[in-house]
Amino acid sequence: MSVASVSRALNGHGGVTAETAARIRQIAAQLRYVPDMAARSLITRRTHTIGVLLPDLYGEFFSELIRGIDLAARPRGLHLLVSSSHGDVEEAALAMRAMQGRVDGMLILSPWVDAAFLQANLPAGLPVVLLNSALESGEYGVLNLDNYGGAYAMTRHLIAARGSAVAFIGGPAANYDARQREAGYRDALAAFAPGTAPCVLPGEFTEDSGYRAGLALLALPTLPQAVFAANDMMALGCLHALRQAGLNVPQDMGLAGFDDIPIARYLDPPLTTVEVRIAEWGRCALETLVARLDGPPAAVPEDTLFAACRVRVRGSCGATTATASTGSITNP
Length: 332
What we know:
- The chain has 11 helices and 12 strands.
- It is of the alpha/beta class.
- It folds into 3 domains: 3-35, no CATH class; 47-145 and 279-294, Response regulator (Rossmann fold); 147-277 and 309-330, 3-Layer(aba) Sandwich (Rossmann fold), CATH 3.40.50.2300.
- The chain has a 7-stranded mixed β-sheet, with helices on both faces.
- α10 links the parallel β8 and β9 (254-259).
- α7 (147-162) runs parallel beside α8 and α9 (207-218) packs across α10 (232-244).
- The longest helix has 17 residues, at 176-192.
- The termini are far apart.
């Protein structure tokens, strides 16, 4: 029996009888034969592996994002090689260089990404899709959330529901998402509560930083009527601080977050938040990358937004329904 016949049978390409194919597979199973993927990649020039670089792997947001990417990858016979930078530029560079030759393309969510950084750490021609990036280049795909629009809509809703005194817990200074969300907050405050000074507290997108921001809020001379955290994890930490101080949410202070992680709806009270279809975003990112793998990369379209982010009204903001003036808002 020829090597070609064995190869066709094991790869399901036909060209051999059903009886022969069954016999080959039986012998392969008895011998515990496993295809040499490294050798196969030398022939096909494909590893059938996608690299995924994230700033962290901790928390529901990143687990949902990876789940969405993986659900789209598996039916296509693709596997994931996942790494994180832990907020460190050198770690991001090391992770990207370590994936060279091991992946067919990369999905990158990193605050350190710019054209010079990518060119220094990635081989020329590697298909790449960037997530939540300010980079505008036809060389790379870009798929962003509407961070600004979601934060603008949420701030507008909180002002309509609670009043003009809305505080904001920001994210890491170098983070594109955080900057866009703070800009949306500031612009909505200026538009719908003119003359009200912004109240921005620092955060790091973690529960602990949200807790510290909650303590800082409690130390203010006058408590705000509502607080909008730039992600749900910080909102959760802030809620803990407010409860420890004996405050009731939403009676004493409204609270809102951003991302709509799965646990948000199960908090007490359920968290009003900006809805991001995280797993769907991951699926769309993988499909965008596959399109670049299968054909020449097209120029990045002017509109690289994945989808508009909607305000999801739940109990923590003190409004039972969306007000007529708030626009892109839904109830549970």
